[in-house]
Amino acid sequence: MIPFSVLDLSPIVEGGDARRGLDETLALAQAADRLGYERFWLAEHHNMPGIASAATAIVIGHVAAGTERIRVGSGGVMLPNHAPLVVAEQFGTLETLFPGRIDLGLGRAPGTDGATARALRRYFEGADQFPRDVVELIQWFEPASENQPVRAVPGAGLRVPIWLLGSSLFSAQLAGQLGLPYAFASHFAPELLLEALALYRREFVPSDRLAKPRAMAAINVFAADTDAEGVRLSTSMQQSFARLSTGKPGKLPPPVDDIAAILTPQQIAGAKGRLLYSAIGGPETVKRQLTDFIALTGVDELMVTGMMFDNTARIRSLEIVAEARDQMATKQAA
């Protein structure tokens, strides 16, 4: 059975604060560790009232220190916001502290609005330099030469695993050309999923980091003990997508029994479009939807995510998915 992993954004819920969000992220990661998930990734976003993972490398350290086995990494660090050397030093430090457990996923988008992107990129338009910056970052992790004037310390020689992340075709092609593993953000940008995976596999060139393509895709999961409760849990994320579409993101709202009483038909349609690839419902429904998604994409690894108001419900969702994963593995082995 392919590995299952977890993506988290450290959601800040209505009535809560960033400290609560970070504490709940650690509790979720500890559950994922206990349940046998492969990796736990955190995403960089800025100027978002409902997301606490802006300083992604720091949160990764917090999670890695509080877990035992699971790999911890970025899904992703938005490279245009940072100098490649700084990222190499940060993740070299993490790899030094938690050897063999750190991943570095890289994104090309700013992870924020235009004004905040300009505040982050004070001296250049970083997205235009993304391919060059990826190559530079890879080089900082190579062993330093004897006369090399600048080194990543820690970082040089550690060869932290690097993934490229994307929601379009650009990073799919680049990941293939550079021989890197690739993860697609189908949990919020589903339109190009299959085309991007096909392009990545077609363009893949073996490298000293990866001999054959390794593709991962993210899917929203709202698993509960009943179908009705799974649907109810998903309404928090539907409300969040609707607010984001108006340019007014906020803290994650609680779920509601009737989403039609909160959102307009157009907002509901827009949110459902974002949630095209989702597993929502009770254990058997979710298992069937996960099985279908894996068959559709042929991915080498599955990453589950789901913004839920109640962290107890998030942990229960991971438990149900882990049970489904184990049942699928038993069936596959039979």
Task: Describe the structure in your own words.
The chain is globular and about 65 Å long. With 334 residues, it is an alpha/beta fold. Helices cover 44% and strands 15% of the residues. The model has no long low-confidence stretch (mean pLDDT 94). Strands 1-2-3-4-5-6-7-9 form an 8-stranded parallel β-barrel, surrounded by 8 helices. The chain folds into 2 domains: 1-160, Luciferase-like domain (TIM Barrel), CATH 3.20.20; 218-334, no CATH class. It has 11 helices and 9 strands. It has helices at 18-34, 56-65, 84-97, 114-120, 130-140, 170-178, 193-203, 227-245, 265-274, 283-297, 311-333, and strands spanning 4-8, 39-42, 71-78, 102-107, 162-166, 182-184, 215-223, 278-281, 301-305. Strand 2, helix 2 (56-65) and strand 3 form a beta-alpha-beta unit.
Key traits:
334 residues, single chain, alpha/beta, TIM Barrel, 9 strands
Q: Which structural class should the secondary elements be placed in?
A: alpha/beta
- Uncertain regions: pLDDT < 50 for 5+ in a row? none
Percent strand equals 5-15%
Tally of individual domains: 2
Q: Largest sheet, if any?
A: 8 strands, parallel, barrel
